[in-house]
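Hello again, I could really use a second opinion on something today. I've dropped the whole record in just underneath, so have a look.
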Amino acid sequence: MANFNKVILLGNLTRDPELRVTPKGTSVCQFGMAVNRVYRSGDETQEETTFVDLEAWGKQAEIISKYVSKGNPLFVEGRLKFDSWESKEGEKRSKLKVIVENMQLMGSRGDNGGSQSGGSYTPAQRSAPSPSNQTPSAGDDIEEDVPF
């Protein structure tokens, strides 16, 4: 059976991006996004907010950390990744996050450097292969033993 793992989101960042570098020198940026859904329930308009954790690698990580901050809109395409680990207390923990594969800055020039129509960045613009389409190897682990 064929598989398909694709996520498309447009939302606002819930916190400033955190940029880290792996021991091998690869940039990793982690951030959160809020995505709103407005719908009608009878005569009332309802709003539902979903909070999503995201992770970007390589050049995309550097661009996001430089040009996007809390509250800014961002359009992302990516894939779901499920992480599981055991805490220091021995509890099993897990987290579902989105690995960013493509993104588009949505703010105006006054909003941290994006263009009026939004700047975009896709894998075709990379100068070297990025691990955004791969699972990091053991040598690429972030300097912490649990996901953030």
